[in-house]
Amino acid sequence: MARILDFFAQTNAPYLHATGKSGTALLLEHLSAGKGGRILEIGFGTGQTLVEIAVRRPENELFGIENAGAMLRSAQKRLNLCGLAGVRLAVASGDGALPYPSGFFDAVIAESVLAILPDEDIPLLLASCARVLKPGGLLLFNESLWRSDVSRETMREINQKCLNLFGIPQASDQFAFPDDWERVCLKQGLFLEKKQHLSVVRGRMPVKFSFALAISGLYSYLGRLKRAIHPVLSKQAKEFRKAEEQFKGYGVFLEGVLFVFKKG
User: Fold this and answer.
1) Residue 62's domain is classified under what CATH number?
2) pLDDT-derived band of residue 2, with 50, 70 and 90 as boundaries?
């Protein structure tokens, strides 16, 4: 079966994270960076969140880093079509190191990226996030984490099925719960400012009319149309939907959580 991230890249899929657009809206509500401040998105996918930030915070410098080449190509095309070629994208090295100077960013964000990394890479990437943040800078991320009643055995079973069916795990079983993320971030000098369960509070994106947002919406729509009419992609979509049915027997096993950390 095809890797689901490649499928999402080919179909220009936006908001690939917990609670979708609502989760992004809540994250952006807590994103703060002064005029001219630099913001980095880790694992930007097809680039929709970068467009949202560029439109709403034109005074900031935007950067993105991604380890999936297909995602980077899709995001670059989206940004170019939206007239946002000034957003600077880079390819991740794969070892958790971020290729930026120390104290370079006012904020670093990620959406459903960190918890699907290999367990050994998570502390390395968080340490790199802490390094590139300015003192007082923010690390914000929303993740789908395991519910507290899910056993480690079930986590490993679900993750193995996800790897076989989709090419990625569901979520880290070592950093399974919110407290685990608080502890690992604290070790890097990142102090919890806010923790919000996304099932309780949902964000709402402020209405904003702009050429860039309109073109970005069209780009996402064309991806959905391509998925519907392209024989290979249509077949893959059906395969992924069928694969998802294998997890119904587990009930609800994930919850979306937004974290905001500040560098001390």
Assistant:
1) 3.40.50.150
2) low
Residue 222 has a CB neighbour count (10 Å cut-off) of 12
Alpha-carbon distance of 258 to 253, in angstroms, equals 17
Q: Name the pTM for this structure.
A: 0.94
pLDDT digits (tens, 9 = 90+) for 134-150: 999 999 999 999 999 99
Work out the number of other CB atoms within 10 angstroms of the CB of residue 80. Answer: 13
At position 214, the amino acid (one-letter code) is A
> How many domains, in total, are found in the chain?
1
pLDDT (tens digit, 9 = 90+) per residue, 74-120?
999 999 999 998 999 999 877 678 999 999 999 999 999 999 999 99
Rg (CA), the chain: 18
Calpha distance 47→24 (Å, rounded): 12
Instruction: State which residues form the domain around 157.
Output: 4-263
Alpha helices in the chain (DSSP H): 4-10, 20-29, 48-56, 69-81, 121-132, 152-166, 178-186, 211-229, 231-244
- DSSP H or E run through 69: helix 69-81
Tokens representing 154 are 């079930």
57 exposed, middle or buried (CB, 10 Å; 0-12, 13-18, 19+)?
A: middle
Encode pLDDT of 169-224 as tens digits: 999 999 999 999 999 999 999 999 999 999 887 778 888 889 999 999 999 999 99
